[in-house]
């Protein structure tokens, strides 16, 4: 088989926020290095583009790194590695400023200084924003800035299929050049995975079609553990039917959530008392954390207090009292989305919303320096589990994570590549041939199972068993279904035998990744017999620090299945406490001060 | 509101086909069904070999531009219900760009033009983050902000007759992006970009048809950006002429 081989110093897989930031960092640190940036889409298509509300970073005088730290650690239900959170909160603002210096059009105060807005679970306003297109502007700013650096060689529409490993060290990647359908092999001194999350394993999600967990699966197949995979964030406000994201900034600006009776139901779930419309209060009501809000919806739906729309069950997100001018200034994209996709103008009517799968808190295990347990392999962004988000991510922390840890990954990989050098070519040829033969067999798969049927069954099973609330019984059923689906995947039938832009073939590769990642999620969720953050078990409703104040590590067993073991959480200065919001959240804070 | 509509799609697979050909499908639709949904339905149910690009399905990633009944549109933001009275809906790859396969166009020429205009913030002296933010009032931001909304979907290139005639013309998105940075109070790169904007494939090649602005799914108004660029180009020309006449060597 004709496989094209080439040598570079660093390969970065993924051209979203983390991948681009890593590329820029590596190029700045070591201008002589050859940096290959591979992405299955043009970088500006990456799903960072769809992030709306904002990007965290302490900037106000009455705010502090410690406050951001406390919000993040308690928001994550104490499953965050506190050394990582400390590093993060100390570097988020400088990264936001760097983006500003690179041209990001952050929204401003009248005097020209950076403006910030309130966000869920954050005690003090520290969410930088560019109207409600924050991810879009960050991504385009990074992409455009990356064009300055000649050492960043883009390989747009290259679909990465495998990590190349030699003597226990990651030494490159294999990919399919989508335009030609040929296999290519890139040997490198260091590899960074920045491939994003895996939200598409759920049927209803806010994610783009490309968010299929490819990097997680590639790492998993090389024996790298996936950590904390049971923690999947449901965003409380997606559009019913499509799952399209309606930003938390709607609530940061003062939007209200109402059930079918017009009642602000969040006050019944420990988030009250009710705050006056037009006066949102941080960590109260609509500004509670995402896990709590999604769980409240689940209860309201069970009690029959949600709207039955033709797109499914929904509650109402009411922005009308903000007025047209404010909506146009702060939430123009939301107005565009609601008008286009549910025919609602938020200036005159509430937007129907429901929780939808949004973010993968877990991912490829890394240390605080973004290094995975496989030497030479680094990971950053949503595909990674660096220990920042714990059991529940706070909105606006992940955009900042892209820059903070994307930079670290770029610098670390550059140092590693300089020390490691490029590996010996001959040993990788056989490996590449073997990999390619497997993908070629898939391209010619002639079984009788349909790709779409397996994909849809996967999404439904995850929704049913590994959704907002879980139980051992339902999770076991999902695990069994996933095993069946994996079996069916072996009998896949594809109809397109061509090479040029064969998206059926690529979708089949993605589906294989999704099945592996979903399995890690479900097995870890089955193993965690407690309720914490986004992981709520109906058969184990309490948090159990005795047994589960630890990260889960899902590993690939020899038979391809998952085994789960546990790793201690790094706790430095905030011992586990109870997590309270609304009025109940005031008491511990007072005690802390006293 | 629902029904069924004939969707005719241009196919071209370079390994098998000598020339493009047409394939028709009957696609069921409801009020929410977009052209992208229709394509996904066809791929899942009718013919898995149909290729097209898509991702976010919320009109922000810019992947799914296609010609819908001869009009450049985002597939995810175009709904079948609007064509309920038409006999059929006809899908082709974007005009003025080479076809790679089926509905997948080669957008590299657009990206090359975008790179040409150096679309990054340029400062003579780079500041460290510790220096804090460069102040920019909302009024200053408003001068360029709408030009920063371009999602690089390429619809304006499919709409531009000038780009169709002369692929070297930098085109609407690239010229808009240049203008976006030129108008940014923080930027000092105008001089570096001017040769491209003033050059024969820059703003003066635009014949101001304005169709680019009509088809822009994000209301960026590239035609306005290019026209402002012409004014700036004139000013730049006058300044340089003045310097030349004055005898300065900095022209």
UniProtKB/TrEMBL annotation, chain A:
Query: Which residues does the Swiss-Prot or TrEMBL record annotate as the active site?
Result: 290
User: Which prosthetic group or cofactor does it need?
Assistant: FAD
FAD-dependent oxidoreductase 2 FAD-binding domain: residues covered: 9-399
Q: For this protein, what is the EC number?
A: 1.3.5.1
Q: Could you give a single Gene Ontology term from the biological process aspect?
A: electron transport chain
Q: Which residues bind FAD?
A: 14-19, 39-54, 214, 382, 398-399
- In which residues is substrate bound? 235, 247, 358, 393
Instruction: Give the family, as the similarity comment puts it.
Output: Belongs to the FAD-dependent oxidoreductase 2 family. FRD/SDH subfamily.
Name of protein: Fumarate reductase flavoprotein subunit
- Annotated source species: Chromatocurvus halotolerans
From TrEMBL, chain B:
Q: What's the catalysed reaction?
A: a menaquinone + succinate = a menaquinol + fumarate
GO molecular function ontology, one term from the record: succinate dehydrogenase (quinone) activity
Q: Which InterPro entries match?
A: 2Fe-2S_ferredoxin-like_sf (IPR036010), 2Fe-2S_ferredoxin-type (IPR001041), 2Fe2S_fd_BS (IPR006058), 4Fe4S_Fe-S-bd (IPR017896), 4Fe4S_Fe_S_CS (IPR017900), Beta-grasp_dom_sf (IPR012675), Helical_ferredxn (IPR009051), SDH/FRD_Iron-Sulfur (IPR050573)
Tell me where in this chain the 2Fe-2S ferredoxin-type domain is found.
5-97
Q: Name one GO biological process term.
A: respiratory electron transport chain
Q: Which residues form the signal peptide?
A: none
As to how many cofactors bind and how, the note says: Binds 1 [3Fe-4S] cluster.
Q: Name one Pfam family in it.
A: Fer4_8
Question: How does this chain assemble?
Answer: Part of an enzyme complex containing three subunits: a flavoprotein (frdA), an iron-sulfur protein (frdB), and diheme cytochrome b (frdC).
**Family from the record:** Belongs to the succinate dehydrogenase/fumarate reductase iron-sulfur protein family.
Protein name as it appears in the record: Fumarate reductase iron-sulfur subunit
Species source reads: Chromatocurvus halotolerans
